[in-house]
Amino acid sequence: MEKQVIGKQYLMKQAFSQEELHEREAVCTRDDPPGCQAACPLHIDMRAVCDCAAKGNYVKAAAVIRTVTPFLHLLAKNCGGTCVKGCKLAECGDGIALKAMERACALYGGSGKVSRFMLPKKNRKMAVAGDDLFALACLWELGKKGYEVFWYTACGSMEEILVGWGLTEEEIRGELTAFQGLRIEKERREVLLRDDLPGFLDGKDGGCISPAAGWTALPDGFYTAEIRESAEWILADAKHAALLAERYVQGVHGEPEKGPVESRLFVTMDGVEGSRALAAVDSVTKESATAEAARCIQCQCLECVKGCVYLQHYRRNPRAAIREIYNNMSIVMGNHMANGMINACDECGQCQTACPNGFDYPDVCRIAKHTMVETKKMPPSAHEFALLDQEFSNGEAFFAKAAPGYDQCRYLFFPGCQAGAVSPDTVEAAYADLRARLTGGVGLVLGCCGAISKWAAREDLSAKAMEQFVSAWERMGRPAVICACPTCKQVFSEHTDMEVVGIWDILLSLGWERRGSGTVAVHDACSARGDARTQEGIRAFAEALGYRVEEASLSGDLSPCCGYGGLVKYANPEVSRKKAEFAAGRTKQKLLTYCMACRDQFSRAGKDTCHILELAYGVEPGPVPGLSERRANRLKLKQKLLRDVWKESFEVDTMAAIDYAKGVEAQMETRMILKSDVAGVLKAYEASGEAVYDEETGWLSAGARFGNVTFWVKFTEDGGVYTVRGAYSHRMTVE
After folding, report:
1. CATH of 125-250, one of 3.40.30.10, 3.10.20.30, 3.50.50.60, 3.30.420.10
2. Which residue has the higher pLDDT, 35 or 16?
3. Nearest to 622 by CA among 641, 609, 635
4. Extended beta strands in 144-280, E state
5. What is the C-alpha end-to-end distance of the chain, expressed in Å?
6. Nearest CA among 262, 265, 209, 216 for reference residue 237
7. What gap in Å lies between CA 361 and CA 346, rounded to an integer?
8. What is the pLDDT of residue 379?
9. Sheet of strand 721-730, all strands in order from the earlier edge strand to the far edge
10. What is the structure's pLDDT at 377?
11. Whole-structure pTM value
């Protein structure tokens, strides 16, 4: 839908409903309770208790229990230990002695007053009838929520009830501080009979009746439970009954969850060694309890976070992140603060593969990016440079020809835009080898498959790139497509009916002489995730070349992204750099890639790396090419192939003599300013003669606008030679 606001059009589009949001969130179990908490009828977070106790903070550990129930000392002496059954550590040894932890919390953190809740008073009246722990717990549950509670009892006091559970006078005083300030009025009845029901329930909005009273039929709004003996179950039943009474007066329908549940939390036990639990529960000391608490492995699911720098960087779990993204898409006016987080996801799918439930977080980012682009809430600046690079690859640098002497070919070689930019010599060597060893003619197309625009959520530009390639493919007679890039292979396989194969499979089938020796570790490309044939083929090809393959950690389908995918390199250089460093640091061996973008990223991170075709053809990886050099490499490759293979000429524009002061080229690289941009500004200066002179430095400053960007160059001129002193750009329009 469209919404008119202050003379402007603000486009609104809901990517998915709240119901779908909840369904997606439910797949992630990160926030689900651990086994001990799920097994406890009261759902006490014993994981948090152990965390505090392991640090020696028993006051805080005791507070964790008291947020659920004030009866800390009572539980410590009477808890049946249901939670122990859910301890994950019991799978490889003894589970945590959780009863000992409760005892330690009572002994070393249970003194002093119980914190009271500061809640506004409610104008509803509740009734509680009973002389037991159930009734006492119901009084606290309803009273802490601000209700005025009328307690009908045959006993003399709360103390009488707690004495029966083996508590000392000091412990009783401590437990009962939780009731101070609560609006509780006691009315003593010698006998609580059902016949008294109209007498003391009249005028009450709801309440709880002790199961010991024996009432089986209760009016609406009043709840009881079955008779229990174990303290934790009595307290859990009271909590449930009080919640039912509150929901009734609030008009909320449905039955709340009760008692133990099955934990969905996935916890891997890899690397966890079993150990023996503390035996002396009743005589636990602070030191022994602290040591016992330290045995807790703090159950949590981190499968998606282990290999994902993105989730580590933003300190998010997917469940929380998709809620943030959903809210970001719902903003009509104002800042969309999650845009940066959306663009920093490389959509590689590693987290989905690692997740035991297959949580598809990249799909949410993909949907969000498309929605934000469509509704014009995603600034184009994040991906503009990459999109212009695709335009260059499929424009000035584009090349499509059948093999010399052929109108139609049996094969078509498509190395991909990154191979020609990073290592043009490798592309030239591979094409020469394919022409020499394959019959039926091998055509060549230099360009971009459209993955860049697809990552930028520009389906229109992606479709345009695909149409351009398909047109060349059809002119060559619909040949089998040989890809040197796994992303290109994936794009063509998913969106066309072409016969697509990786060059590594072709070369392996043609046979190969051993070219080297040593050990390498293979980095699997994101686009080969789930493609066992490609992963196995790369390893087989490396072994055929004479190398031993050592598996890096997080390899195969769990391989992390290099930081280029999803255009993170342009949208968030910091995250991209961290990704490259993380992926490169998984092994001490030389890192072998089969994606040229990966090779480029790892080289920038200082890793000894090479592409498998560089290894095959003996091409020594050169210095990491800058942005300007990458474009120049594509044009030079096109020029060289036309001249050497097709005997045709192709003129490449040469720029004027321009020198760069120390540090300027690195500055331009960071700011994504090309040497052609600088040349354009200087050409505009020559035409207009307009520049600003800085008397202090003696430098000239000239600017020119190309597309959406205005570039400014600071320079000096001496004898027809320009020396660039600095460069910057902006997207402002001065009117």
Report:
1. 3.50.50.60
2. 35
3. 609
4. 148-153, 184-188, 206-209, 222-223
5. 33
6. 209
7. 11
8. 81
9. 658-660, 721-730, 709-718, 700-706, 692-693
10. 81
11. 0.85
